[in-house]
Amino acid sequence: MAVTENVETSLLVSFSTDPRNEEISTLEIEAEMKVSQDHCGEGSSIILTVNGNTMKVPYSLVNFVGGGAIFISYRGLNSRLNGSILATFGDSNNTATEVISPVVGGAITGPNTKNLDPPVTFTLKHLMAVKPSHTVRCVFWDTKNEVWSTHGCTTGMSEQENRTICVCTHLSTFAVIMAPTEIQEDTGLRLISIIGLSISLVCLLLSFLTFSLCRSLRSAHTSILMVLCGCLFLGQLLVLVGLEQTSNKILCSVIAGSLQFIFLCAFCWMSLESFLLFLTVRNLQAMNFMKSQRSYFPYLCLIGFGIPVIIMVISASLYPHVYGGETHCWLKVSHVWSFLGPVCMFISVNFTLLVFTFCLLKKKLASLNSNVSTLRHTRLLAFKALSQLFILGCTWIIGLFQFGSGSIVASYIFTICNSLQGVYIFIVHCLLNRQVQEEYRKGFYRFYTKKSMSDTVSGSTFPMTAKPSHLSENAKEDGVGDLESRKC
After folding, report:
1. Quick one: pLDDT band at residue 473, thresholds 50, 70, 90?
2. Structural domains of the chain, count
């Protein structure tokens, strides 16, 4: 960046020697010079424009004989800047930060170019669109520390699209950078997360125990629900206890990778559930599979866990450094699409299968030869699967908006929806399921029956085993008398 200093110094010396209004264009730069006294009637500021970028200098800063300003735009310098120069934002390996505006320089004649009051305003156009979950910042080149810095510059958005306003109290070399934003968090959000995830974990555990212990409920469908509950339970437990374990980098990376794998498994198993529902409607005999205890479940496990493993291997081999961050053990914002991309794919496949399922249900129910009770049961399962997809899918879609100005609101909605996942599964698949209700009644009946029998037995034990001694003697005498009478 020493080149920019030399250019600015040379132009400023030339302008101070011969103040003039001039536009300069070379292979490396484009610049404009203006003398303040020649533009004193334009208002309270001198405006210099180069390639659609503007520099607005308050007239009070250059209100003297020979006063003026210079505005320089460097050709192609932004593309030659690499991530190491921008390493002050994030960690030292951060290459996601990009310069999205021309690199410009500003200078004024006069002894003071620091602590300017009023400040100088730059309006810089963007050379590329701002990516989702990224923010823009006005920065200047700190020659002392050889880094980009935001000190002395504030960032604002222009009324014109794809432009940023930089208000700076000093003059140097400036640019607009685009950097990933971190998810904002506050105390209330953390408290809601702890309470909500704790409730969700209890509900998921109860659902898992219900599906695994009640033998009459066992089927391919409940087996999928059981695996889904297990994945969500492990994932949410890991979020609760391990998301902020950033002190150990290796452990943090393992936690981030585990979270990605577990939640990918959850979405994959949801897709398998929708696929089985589709088969059930397409061929009524498939209901036998849904209710059977056949040995197809290992093949489902191969698909349900195999696809996430493949995604994880590809992601970890291509981007091993993105697992674990400075504040959370999760994927870095710049590469979160390695998780959200497959999730969107699973959601699309899931939704498509459910739409086809409802279309087939409509045709089947219109047929007089169809098994109406079976179809209605399947339709109920399809509605449950669709609402389940809505709860889980919308949770992560809302997570996309946890950046920028509305990040706090989106974070609260995301946390609340995430907490509802376990509650929803327990209420819909357990409490509102008649078969499960019957199993709960039988379980409570057996529990209270055993309890009442144990109370009865414990209350009657003493009089049956410890009779008074005189009753025993009388019984013996009566027994002897009866024996003698019998002998007679």
Report:
1. very low
2. 2
